[in-house]
Write a structure and sequence with these properties.
By secondary structure, the protein is mainly alpha-helical. It has eight helices and two strands, in the order H-H-H-H-E-H-H-H-E-H. A two-stranded antiparallel sheet has the order 1-2. The longest helix has 37 residues.
Length: 197
């Protein structure tokens, strides 16, 4: 009887789940990116309003100053801007700017690439997971072998180290740039709406 040898090296490695600290770091970096994009949007709107005011005496600058920053609708638009950026980036590529810098990405829990619907669900669920400075997410992740917060469980996703992602599930190169451009465009459009309302 001849012994059959099985080659274990051919099997793709399982992606390595990422814990709370690294994910919180990515969220902080995305918050900084959001603030830079929002500031750039405000500067561009201010310049356009200033030029229009000088050329046509439109009163746009006074109108923008009178609009102020308050109001529940402005807070809601700001939150929607951040969630849209995240959902678009993760749906197209799997990573936001913060996640890419820290070498992590979002996959479906079957280790296939994240899809847009899953990205939207997990982004919206952050409104729950982010409560108490992320304590809800932290508690959920501690009880999960794959470090899933509630949003990941509801969306069927897992956040993993990018280096451990199998080639078949990896989204590369230009796709990240496209994701960031589309996500940033949505973010800046919503911030502009927030400023103008």
């Amino acid at each position: 009887m001849q012994e059959v040898l099985v080659d274990d090296t051919a099997a793709e490695p399982r992606p390595e789940p990422v814990g709370f600290a690294l994910r919180a770091g990515a969220r902080i970096l995305d918050g900084v990116y959001f603030q830079i994009a929002a500031a750039a949007t405000g500067i561009m709107l201010g310049l356009v309003a200033g030029v229009l005011d000088l050329a046509f005496k439109t009163g746009y600058v006074e109108g923008m100053q009178a609009a102020g920053t308050g109001g529940i609708h402005k807070i809601a638009i700001g939150i929607l801007a951040m969630l849209s950026y995240e959902a678009i980036c993760e749906g197209i590529h799997g990573s936001t700017v913060g996640k890419r810098v820290l070498g992590i990405t979002v996959l479906r829990d079957d280790h296939s690439p994240c899809r847009f619907r899953s990205a939207v669900v997990r982004s919206l669920a952050f409104l729950v997971d982010g409560l108490f400075f992320g304590a809800v997410a932290y508690a959920s992740m501690r009880s999960s072998n794959t470090q899933q917060r509630f949003g990941d469980r509801w969306a069927g996703t897992v956040v993993v180290r990018r280096a451990s992602v199998p080639e078949s599930s990896r989204r590369e190169g230009g796709r990240f740039l496209a994701a960031v451009l589309a996500g940033t465009a949505a973010l800046m459009g919503l911030v502009a709406l927030r400023v103008l309302l």
